[in-house]
Amino acid sequence: MKTLSKNLCCLLVAISSLCAHAELVIEITQGVDNPTAIAVVPFAWQAPGTAPEDIAGIVHSDLQRSGLFDPVARTDMLGRPSSPTQVYYRDWRAIDAEYLLIGRVSMTGTRTEGDMRIEYQLFDVVREASVFSAVSEGSVNEARMLAHQVSDVVYEKITGIRGAFATRLLYVSVSQIRGDRDYYRLTLADSDGARPIVLLDSREPVLAPAWSPDGSEIAYVSFETTRPAIYRQNLSTGEREQLTNFPGINSSPAWSPDGKYMAMVLSKDGSPDLYLMELTTKKLTRITHHYAIDTEPTWMPDGKSLLFTSDRGGRPQIYRYHMATGLTERMTFEGVYNARARVAQDGRNVVMVQQQGGKFHIALMDLVTNRTQILTSTELDESPSIAPNGSMILYATKFAERGILAAVSVDGGVKFRLPAREGEVREPAWSPYMSNR
Length: 437
Fold this sequence. Notes:
Layout: H1 2-14, H2 16-19, E1 27-30, E2 36-40, E3 44-45, H3 55-65, E4 69-71, H4 89-93, E5 99-108, E6 115-124, E7 129-139, H5 143-159, E8 168-176, E9 182-190, E10 197-202, E11 206-211, E12 217-222, E13 229-234, E14 240-242, E15 250-255, E16 261-266, E17 273-278, E18 283-286, E19 294-299, E20 305-310, E21 317-322, E22 328-330, E23 338-343, E24 349-356, E25 359-366, E26 372-374, E27 382-386, E28 392-399, E29 402-409, E30 415-418, E31 424-430
């Protein structure tokens, strides 16, 4: 992952003039009723000069954004401990903190090119006991990602759920320059919207970004040749490969869980159908044969079946294609419109766009109970993408007449918005856990 990070940093410098348009802003709108109070003390900086990043501040923001925590304001803290001998539990009980996180940051090498070492420890204030201590190390250029890793560990220790702060987002930002036509930018950012990097800048639409299973590559649809074509791109090298250029529709790329195949939608043989491309040989296999529109494939985590949208029943609904038998079954019956399904890694929860009363909401369907729950109350929600730990759903919506990204927890209890500082944003895709991090 260090090679990938260095290449991304170089790319960021090269296109820094473009990044401001893509930067997202976090606006928390709803959290749980009784969030856990945690004090994240500013980490002691044990090196010359000033720290390149406020590690504790990033952890504070991550935990707050989850909606499950209510971090203590620094102005309310009665002390700034950086080692266990400096911790006095009475000070933290006095401000009703349930947990306390302290840390120290040191450097090897220069402030701009060296490595960073973060030592941190979590305490249970109520029990007056240390919960755990740990160390995170890496390049100073990846200081924010190291902070997100600390957040992940703290989050998991307290909630029992793996954190997803040290992941990344893909999205498409759209803006006008000097009143000219729209400019489309395929953008990569941290999970909090920070450090945006423009991967593709185009005057033609860019759609449907998708991640490879290990997070090293992405795929997307670009109209840069004036008609839709599917591309894949290596994030470390920047190398791009055009996979399709057939007449008609070329859309909805989706990597198989083993990374060997890509599902896609092509209309080269007539109506839009699902195809599989073997990525080594580029061999195509058509897997649906229907006069209706079959689109938006997404893989089940075990790779044995695909969910997709089809109007073969008269209105868009979610169907399931079984790889072994070639059989197709309808999955959704509640609501007149269900589309753009995405599956959590546990294979149980499916998120989708559902129409209710003329409005389009994000809904969650439990495949075990067949229960469906509407999670959003806005009117035009689309393009859901689920976090790799299954806890949050990112989606595109409208707010104040602008296209923005928003997020909602799978139980509907936590919500926040991520509008861009300029322009509009759409087509989000949450990364998997990076296997080589």
